[in-house]
Design a protein that fits this description.
Elements: E1 3-5, E2 13-15, E3 23-27, E4 39-45, E5 51-60, E6 71-75, E7 102-103, E8 108-114, E9 123-131, E10 143-145, E11 152-154, H1 176-210, E12 217-218, E13 221-227, E14 233-238, E15 245-249, E16 273-278, E17 281-285, E18 293-294, E19 299-300
Parallel strand pairs: 1-3, 2-4
Antiparallel strand pairs: 3-9, 4-8, 5-7, 5-9, 6-8, 10-11, 12-15, 13-14, 15-17, 16-17, 18-19
Bound molecules: calcium ion (2 copies).
Amino acid sequence: MFSVFLEDECGTLVDMEKLALESVRIELTKYQIYHNSMNCVLRVKSPYSKYFEVKITKNMIDGGENCSSDYLSIHDGPELRNDVLQGLDLRVCEQSVLAASYASSGDVITIRFISDDIDASEGFWLHITAFREEDNGACHESEFQCMTNKRCISEHLVCDRFEDCTDASDECMLSTPAIIGLAVGGVILVVALTCLAIYVCYRKRRQKDTGSTGHLHSNSDILNSTEDGNKTDIYSYRPKSTEIQAIYDVIPYRPTSTYRPTSTYTINGPYPQIEKNHGRHVWITAPPEVTYISPYEQSVIP
Ligand SMILES: [Ca+2]
Ligand SMILES: [Ca+2]
């Protein structure tokens, strides 16, 4: 949003066509409190002879009784002697009751701010939008038609986070159900991510506690995994046939300084036999009678 500070532009003309603007915000001051003893006039000219829709979006003018101390006036024309915008008080201050917006009857408005020499406040903001009346119920291709009053504004003002139509139909407001849906979806997503994080931590912790990557990768039935004192790794499994292969993790439950994964791993007896060793994983072919394997001891235990 292009902003003009009235205190910096006293006596000037804001030509929106030259500035390529379809809307502009006029702010009284860039400071927290406006100056005392101001008498500042600014004219605003619309692009392509359009009209103006003026919204007073902030009104903190220390006006006192009947706006007799500080006040704003907005005139429907290039001169201060022109009437104020239709429906607007002659003097606008914090005590004024305002309508949603005010329209001009021409392409120039004159804004004036007066402050006395004591007490000040934050000032005002005006949101000014250029509009055109519809032609036979339609707007041009590059325009958006406001829903209620059918006025035409530039399509560039659609969904720009500033309400340019009096009914705000140019803005992409989310419906209440959509907001609720997004909120619920967000909560579910957060809970799901938290559960996933907890599960991953749990798995890592468990693997760390066992000293193992956790399991036999096997199509055999894994009966259990136990620990036998200091002998470290003990798995047992019961193959269903002589052709069963298992990927055996040879990392012990609690690795000791003497433990080394072996690449020349053998087990007593004709079965089972080692087929492959991929680092920590050993492929084993085992007969049905093998029910207990202690890879650390390299033996078959009945
Ligand atoms: Ca004052
Ligand atoms: Ca807008």
